[in-house]
Amino acid sequence: MAERAVSRRARVSTVLAIFAAVTVLALAGVWLCQAQDRSGSVSDAPKTAAAQKSPQPIREVPRDTETAEAKPQELPGVRECGLGSPVVEPQIITLNCANTGVVASGIKWSHYGADGADGQGVVQVSVAANGAAPATYPARFKLYGARNVDGLLAFTGIDVDYTGATPMGESKETYSIA
Amino acid sequence: MGIRGRIALAISFVTALAVVVLGIAVHHIAAEERGTQAQSYQDALLSSALQVYQRDGLLALGAQLDDSTLPVPLAQRVSNGKPGTYISGGADPRVWAATSVGDGKVLSVSAPYPDRDPVQKALDKALIVAGVATVALMAVVAWFVAQSLSRRLRTSAAAARRIAAGAPPDAEALAAGGRDEVAELGRSVHHMATSLAARVAAEREFTADVAHELRTPVAGLVASAELLPHPRAVEMVRERAQTMRSLVEDLLEVSRLDSGVERAQLDPVELPSLVRGIVKRARGQRGVDDVAVEVVGEGCIVATDARRVERILVNLLGNAAKHGKPPIVVRVEGTRIVVRDHGGGYPPELVSQGPRRFRTAAPERGTGHGLGLTIAVGQALVLGATLVFDTAEGGGAEATLSLPPAEDEAGHSAPEAVTVRA
């Protein structure tokens, strides 16, 4: 009797083990299939959606040059690749105007004055070889060389100091703007 | 394959299975994370490109306006006014991000998304190397674990073999500490061996008691038979009484041999002369009649107990005369004495397991108590000799008694069962 009970218990354990193994395999298969389905579907773009809904505020430098020179408290701006009006405290600056492939983005200014400006953000580079490689690099920015350009007060250079990984291997870069 | 190999193989197999499943899961999760990151990067780039475009009308960060190669699923989503990201397959797999910028125009960025990413390849390589190393390491560990388990089982098996050979139960070897199954098995075998040993001891004691208790009445019976008046009745009663006394004497001898108190008295003797004398005295007893003695080579001097050798040979000759067929040949070769008859040979059970008391196991070899050969084996053990039962070439039973060589020939290797007296 005892042997028969032990044998029955062993059979039940075997059946349970087989059931558990089959269940795990089935769940793994479902997971793999779902993952494959996800790779062929369109996903959200939350950052782009946010930028689309709330464009950044643009504050331009006044056109009155004489007034600006007469009033040193007026702040210089940043001209995007020498085009348009200078923008004060811009959140985004195109660094490499030759191919527009390098952009300083999400800048938060800790100091912004006529003598210069300091802020933090990320440098974005257009990915050429591998879309899975990092495309953003945290950096500190320093605007300098404010002068009158085409009658508008604007900064003429920007120093980029990377705080982490660098896109080109250099931890510091300088770009001419305006 | 032994238990060590099986355990090591089972653990290695399970480890390999776990490594493969884990490797596939890690590879899959890494690939999925790579896709998610790539889409997130493109989303961030498109976000910045959108801001530049909205502010200056420039196409920054490689952004394109109304790219004709934009994948259809992504274009459909953007046409609904929702920005999105997408990974396209085909010959040129790319990761995309696109959004509408008004007037039916679509701003998009994209980057190559190779199937074989170097980081992914490095991860796969690391997974394979780590997996193989883990399986190899686990195989070694499993081997040592199984070795430990197997060693304990082998120790128990060796102890059981020693008990089977006549040694007393070894509590230390069998009832080792621990609470696992191996320790439980050892304890069970120890209990079984102790129980069997107690039973065997009780049987030996019973045999000795019976023999001792029978001896006195049988002796009285023999003496009383002398007083009977009829000569034929006297002869019959005396014959039966003698047989019974012989059986009792054999039982007593078996009992003494079982108790292990018997000691050999060794003296140097020339073996051919000893054998010839024994055969000469044995003729006419127990039906021993047609016996020839052959000596091969020169006669050898051995240190042995002549009385016990005679007891062995007489029992072998008696067995051959009673159960075999003549002629009986006793051959002396060095320190070996071979007794052969031309009957049907020993039973297979006797050849393989040795003689057992009160079991003849062969009706064709006639009736008997099975004590003669049992006593012969016991006496050979006391002499430190070996007694082997076999079937002779051409048929017939053949018993070979191998005596140990004399001390000056064999050095100082006296057998354990023999005590040499000066």
Explain this structure to me?
The complex is a heterodimer of chains A (178) and B (422). With 178 residues, chain A is α+β, with helices and mostly antiparallel strands. Chain A contains three helices and twelve strands; from the N terminus they run αβαβαββββββββββ. The radius of gyration of chain A is 29 Å and the shape is rod-shaped. In chain A, the strands form three sheets. A six-stranded antiparallel β-sheet of chain A has the order 5-6-7-8-11-12, with no helix packed on it. Chain A has a three-stranded antiparallel β-sheet with strand order 2-4-3, with no helix packed on it. Chain A has a two-stranded antiparallel sheet with strand order 9-10. In chain A, a hairpin with a 2-residue loop joins strand 3 (78-80) and strand 4. Chain B has eleven helices and eleven strands. In chain B, a hairpin with a 5-residue loop joins strand 2 (84-88) and strand 3 (94-100). The model of chain B is unreliable at 409-422 (pLDDT under 50). The chains are: A alpha+beta (178), B alpha+beta (422). The interface between A and B is large, with 46 and 54 residues. Strand 1 of chain A pairs antiparallel with strand 2 of chain B, so a sheet runs across the interface.
Spatial arrangement of strands, main beta sheet of chain B: 6-8-9-11-10
Q: Stretches of chain A where pLDDT falls below 50 for ≥5 residues?
A: 65-72
- Total helical elements of chain A: 3
Average pLDDT number of chain B = 81
Provide tags for this entry.
heterodimer; A: 178 residues; alpha+beta; six-stranded antiparallel sheet; three-stranded antiparallel sheet; B: 422 residues; five-stranded mixed sheet; four-stranded antiparallel sheet; 11 helices; 11 strands; 14% strand; rod-shaped
